[in-house]
Amino acid sequence: MTNCADEIFLQTMLYNSPMKNEIKNELLWYVKWEKNTSSPYIITLDFYDEIKNSGKLFARKFDINKDWAIVEKLEKNLSN
Predict the structure, then answer these.
(1) Is the pLDDT confidence value at 4 over 80?
(2) Which terminus has fewer CB within 10 Å in the chain: N or C?
(3) CA atoms of 21 and 37, how far apart (whole Å)
């Protein structure tokens, strides 16, 4: 039992700091949701350009058993 779960500790601290007016409410991860489900699409090579142009730092949901090539391509092009 805890007073503040790990998932909200940092956010709570920042929102109660002098920097609260500097915070942007923006998602930092790329997620493409499937219609009529509660699960995101599994990211494949088909999504590469969309991810690359999204400006996001993180992405989900990968499945290396379905498409390992997307992981390899993203790793190869990290600096581009």
Answers:
(1) no
(2) N
(3) 35
Nearest to 62 by CA among 78, 49, 76, 51: 51
- The 8-class DSSP code of residue 42 comes to P
Q: Where are the domains of the chain?
A: 24-76
pTM across the whole model: 0.65
- 23-77 pLDDT, tens per residue? 888 888 999 998 898 889 999 999 999 999 999 989 999 999 999 999 999 999 8
Exposure string of 64-74, with b = 16+ CB inside 10 Å and e = fewer, is eeebeebeeeb
Element (H, E) at 12: helix 6-15
Q: How many other C-beta atoms can be found within 10 angstroms of the C-beta atom of residue 30?
A: 19
